[in-house]
Write a structure and sequence with these properties.
Distance between the termini of chain B: 33 Å
Largest sheet of chain B: 4 strands, mixed
Order of helices and strands of chain B: HHEHEHEEHHHHHHHHH
Shape of chain B: elongated
Number of helices of chain A: 12
Number of domains of chain B: 2
Low-confidence stretches of chain B: none
Mean pLDDT of chain A: 88
Shape of chain A: elongated
Distance between the termini of chain A: 38 Å
Helix content of chain B: 55-70%
Low-confidence stretches of chain A: 313-318
Radius of gyration of chain B: 29 Å
Structural class of chain B: alpha/beta
Oligomer: heterodimer
Number of strands of chain B: 4
Strand content of chain A: 25-35%
Strand order of the largest sheet of chain B: 2-1-3-4
Strand order of the largest sheet of chain A: 5-6-7-3-8-9
Largest sheet of chain A: 6 strands, mixed
Number of strands of chain A: 13
Helix content of chain A: 25-40%
Mean pLDDT of chain B: 86
């Protein structure tokens, strides 16, 4: 199996007082044909990492190979075969969608017809509309089309869905699935965990410039987040003050934490833990105030690894 | 389906990059107005304000009393004079406010005597004093000792408008190059469009060349319009080779596109680039001889003014258009223009920031 992206010991430190270590040693290997997601909170180092892989930033240390080539010696050859959608590129406002894509197509030696790129992102109705008259979602689809038009073997999509409405997000997700069906490799960053779960073959979770987890979403959830999550609260304040380890003694519990008066248990098999929990509470004459169970998610993985939620309240969509 | 059939024109990067610039420009009505209409408005305004007046009329206030009536009657015989009688106070007020050039007191007591009140620092005032005195003396019977003759020189080529048009051409080339290229580059940098282009296999030289070619298209059409207009409206003609003027326009446009690129090579905001542009433009607006000859400046700064990028361009344009000089005789000017263009272009390539 060939690797589309390979990097080892990637580090990036921005000079300053104090210097900012945006990336502190990241190793990645992405196979051809894979849809790979990089997840993490804002400021985790995702955009810096992807910028280095795209050859737009110089790493402080580390080695990068893209489609088996190095940036230093084969920069142009790599450029011909990758497509990039940057975070918030504003294309020229007074060019139409078709003109913009024809321009980008002309910058590549080979590629698909602009009309086909327009069809792939379903912008046929807007082909002759000026960019400034497009909605946010349409602009984002144009950005993806501009990345597609050189018929790349590898696509980099940096936060393609951030700030979009649910409908536009679904449309973009469909475009990304299509790429995968065509055997293209995609590296995308996002901070929407559920999106990554649905779209990506594998995900890497990045926090504070380091990879903290890597694997298939389902496997990561099972391993680190628990396949299921039981959340409950108890009327007696004494119960809430118990150390979290107390709950780990219950059967099938793999992790436990307390947040805002709610106890979250990561569990492998809810049908084992629930009777045991109820029995345990009854024996002490404590009554449940609330109880819910749900499937585990990558959010739980992140919380389980860092003890923090990925998107602190109030920072959503920032 | 991969489309690899070569379609030279349709997918030529240089053609497409240039076309994008041209389209963006033409779809910006304000920009089109400022580029094309502004220089014309300027020519008309200045051409009218400094039009050659066939006869300079001297406005004279004659103070009431004495021989005022008869002096006034004498002056009225000549169309060069506009003489009216006012009270002495009114005369003084009119001189102060510039409504007249000269006050004439025509005393009769004890003997006829003319007395002139004027502002010797005002050229038209001093002129009026001499013209009026000369005329009154002759009317009173003075004979010239030596015979004189004169001939008017107002044929095309010697008027202010003839001097002005090459200056405005140079100014148009300068403004077009600096603002057109500089503003566009910084705007694209802010939009992260430069970074997006860098993420494609685009050749940097194609990008820069497209900026300069599109600029050339606009400025050449702009200055042609200006030249045609000046010819129709004011009869401004070119005494030298049209080809030579064309070559100079081409070189001037490239020179200032290069300087525009350099000024914008690192600027991150529109405010920064505007400030830099003005800092670059101001010395040339004043010191490169657009509106008046640089010889009015002190001797010591002349060599410095001569080195400004605009000075040799305007000097050469005037040499060709006014004096019919050969382009070969303007080698020093051409060398300076080319040097400015090339040095700034290569420095810009070197310092250019794509993000």
């Amino acid at each position: 199996m060939h690797l589309a992206v390979e990097c080892t010991g990637l580090k990036k430190t921005y000079p300053g007082k104090p210097p900012v270590e945006a990336v502190r040693g990241i190793d990645l290997a992405i196979a051809e044909g894979e849809c790979f997601g990089m997840l993490g909170p804002n400021g985790a180092g995702k955009t810096t990492t992807i910028g280095i892989l795209e050859g737009l930033l110089e790493p402080t240390a580390g080695a990068v190979r893209i489609l088996g080539m190095g940036w230093r010696d084969h920069g142009r050859a790599i450029r011909e075969r990758i497509g990039i959608s940057l975070q918030e590129t504003k294309f020229s406002e007074k060019l139409t969608v078709r003109e913009t894509l024809t321009l980008f197509r002309s910058l590549y030696r080979s590629g698909i017809a602009p009309a086909e790129a327009i069809a792939r992102v379903s912008l046929e109705d807007k082909a002759d509309t000026w960019v400034k008259n497009l909605s946010g979602g349409q602009k984002q689809r144009l950005a993806v089309a501009a990345a597609l038009v050189g018929d790349p073997a590898l696509m980099f999509l940096d936060e393609p869905t951030t700030g979009l409405d649910p409908h536009s997000r679904r449309q973009l997700a469909e475009i990304i699935r299509q790429l995968r069906r065509h055997g293209r490799t995609t590296l995308l960053t996002t901070h929407y965990m559920e999106e990554a779960e649905r779209l990506c073959d594998r995900v890497a979770i990045v926090d504070r410039g380091r990879l903290i987890a890597l694997g298939q979403p389902r496997e990561l959830i099972a391993r680190l987040g628990g396949r299921h999550v039981v959340e409950f609260s108890v009327e007696s304040p004494a119960a809430m003050r118990l150390p979290p380890e107390t709950w780990s003694t219950l059967p099938a519990v793999t992790g436990c934490r307390c947040e805002d008066g709610v106890i979250h248990l990561s569990v492998t098999e809810p049908h084992l833990v629930l009777p045991a929990l109820l029995e345990w509470l009854a024996a002490r004459n404590w009554r449940l105030a609330s109880l819910t169970t749900r499937h585990g998610s990558l959010d739980d993985v992140f919380v389980g690894l860092t003890g923090r939620p990925i998107e602190p309240a109030g920072e959503a969509n920032s | 389906m991969t489309d690899t059939t070569p379609e030279p024109a349709r997918f030529n990067p240089l053609v497409n990059l240039t076309l994008a610039r041209v389209r963006e420009f033409l779809r910006e009505p304000e920009a089109v107005f400022w580029v094309y209409a502004f220089p014309l408005v300027m020519v008309v305004t200045l051409g009218v304000a400094f039009r050659s007046r066939p006869l300079e009329v001297c406005r004279i206030a004659v103070a009431r009393g004495g021989l005022a009536e008869s002096a006034c009657a004498v002056l009225d015989r000549d169309s060069r004079f506009d003489a009216r009688i006012w009270s002495e106070d009114e005369c003084r007020r009119r001189l102060r406010s510039g409504q007249v050039d000269l006050i004439l007191f025509a005393h009769s007591d004890p003997a006829p005597r003319y007395e002139y009140h004027f502002d010797p620092t005002r050229a038209e005032s001093a002129l009026a004093r001499n013209t009026v005195d000369d005329f009154l003396q002759r009317a009173a019977g003075r004979k010239d000792v030596v015979e004189t003759g004169e001939r008017a020189a107002s044929e095309p080529g010697g008027r202010y408008i003839d001097f002005l048009v090459p200056g405005l051409l140079g100014m148009g080339l300068m403004g077009g190059g600096l603002w057109g290229v500089g503003y566009a580059v910084v705007d694209m940098r802010i939009r992260k469009l430069l970074k997006r282009y860098l993420a494609t296999p685009m050749k940097r030289s194609h990008f820069m060349a497209a900026l300069m070619i599109s600029r050339l298209l606009f400025t050449v059409s702009e200055v042609l319009l200006l030249l045609i207009f000046a010819r129709i409206a004011f009869g401004v003609v070119c005494h030298g080779s049209h080809l030579a003027v064309g070559v100079l326009i081409l070189l001037g446009s490239l020179e200032f596109s290069g300087i525009g690129l350099l000024v914008a090579s690192r600027a991150q905001t529109i405010e920064t680039v505007s400030g830099l542009m003005n800092a670059v433009l101001l010395p040339m607006w004043i010191g490169s001889g657009i509106f008046f000859t640089t010889e009015r400046f002190p001797e010591a700064v002349q060599p410095l003014l001569g080195l400004l990028p605009l000075t040799p361009l305007i000097h050469a344009l005037r040499g060709i258009m006014l004096e019919g000089a050969s382009i070969l005789a303007l080698g020093a000017d051409l060398a300076l223009i080319v040097a400015w263009g090339m040095v700034s272009f290569f420095l810009a390539l070197r310092w250019f920031r794509w993000s």
